[in-house]
Amino acid sequence: MSDSFETLSLHAGYCPENGGPRVLPICQSTTFRYESTQAIAELFDLKAPGFFYTRLSNPTVDAVEKKIAALEGGVGAMCTSSGQAATLTAILTIAKAGDHIVCSSGVYGGTFNLMAVTFKRMGIDVTFIDQNASSEEISKAFRDNTKAFFGETIANPALTIFDISRMAEIAHKHHVPLIVDNTFATPYLCRPFDFGADIVVHSTTKYMDGHAVQVGGVVVDSGKFDWAKSGKFPEFVTKDESYHGLIYTKAFGNMAFIVKARAQIMRDLGLCQTAQGAFYINLGLETLALRIRRHSENALAVAKHLEKHPKVSRVIYAGLESSPYHALSKKYLKDGLCSGVLSLELKGGRDAGAALIDNVKMASPEVHVADIRTCLLHPASSTHRQLTDEQLVACGITPGLVRLSVGLEALDDIIKDLDEALDKV
Ligand SMILES: *Cc1c(COP(=O)(O)O)cnc(C)c1O
Known about the structure:
Layout: H1 5-11, H2 37-44, H3 59-72, E1 76-80, H4 83-94, E2 100-104, H5 109-121, E3 125-129, H6 135-139, E4 146-152, H7 164-173, E5 178-181, H8 186-189, E6 199-203, E7 217-221, H9 227-230, H10 234-237, H11 248-252, H12 256-269, H13 275-286, H14 288-307, E8 312-316, H15 326-332, E9 341-346, H16 349-359, E10 364-365, E11 375-377, H17 389-394, E12 401-405, H18 411-423
Parallel strand pairs: 2-3, 2-4, 4-5, 5-6, 10-11
Antiparallel strand pairs: 1-7, 6-7, 8-9, 9-12, 11-12
The chain binds pyridoxal-5'-phosphate.
The site of pyridoxal-5'-phosphate has 16 residues, from α4 and α5.
């Protein structure tokens, strides 16, 4: 098959048999029937491919995993119940109590909390670094027990761009994999593996689904990290007693990570995607290239318009030449397209932010981004409303900041709606 993104997004992962359904069928079954105990034993020993229980794999979910692996250029993928579950699974596959992770401080709030609070409770220590610091400075965060370095291609909601090649070099110098959350960019705008990342995670809830119908996540393995050579991952190169002595690198070569993620973490924690959910994600993937391109074009036009608006003090969007991340966006994002999400800061502060939200007519106030419908959120009066102005600034959010996720409506209508609401601010 052609390896162009548009073709893979329609055809990878599922090929109908003669007379079979043209569209990926929903395999709504928890279990699968076999003719003999021998056949089942081979599945349990991971010696034969196949399905035996939907927590571990399901034909519909499997097809979507193969499609996403193809789009990212990886050797394998595993869908999870949410983006949070994807990050949890990726980390728990390689780190345990007593280990340490280095993480960019600009990551998604849910990821920050998972790292700063829940991993700490589980005995996995995390050091946050400023991704704009020098490589020498960032290197100081790495320790003997460090097992991974984590960051986001386009951070939500800071909208900074992660310098993936430079970060991969730092991670590899310390013999650990670089894990990149590629949610906002999607593999259409950026394939982190092409720049040295080793593992990619996504919240498929955002652009991959794109229609705001299904929460989900995915972990993708590049197959490039050498777990044996690193010397820091004994669990990959010694016997897994919970799998009667299986050695992941020996049995599965460059798929050791993604097999271990499924065989251990999915088996034991059960954070699986459903067949129905995977079906929705697949529908979204089929049009991802078209949608993300138009989202990005609309967002750039809206950003340029707002940048000139008298009531707006600042627009944060890497596609703007005024952005400190403009050069990195050109390096990492296809055609310099930067997704549909931007932030604007209103001169009138907290009240102005709330007034904008209250006066838009078409755009909807939502705790969501990356939807086909334009939506917006004022953190100071919603997600961060318990914080004082000073505390807000400390988390990089000003009182008048509004996050805008530009949808696929006609550009003129999006701008008109914002302008009319801004008139009332
Ligand atoms: C939304 C989001 C997540 C969490 O995903 P859920 O599907 O909501 O669990 C993780 N990372 C990024 C960048 C996100 O935007």
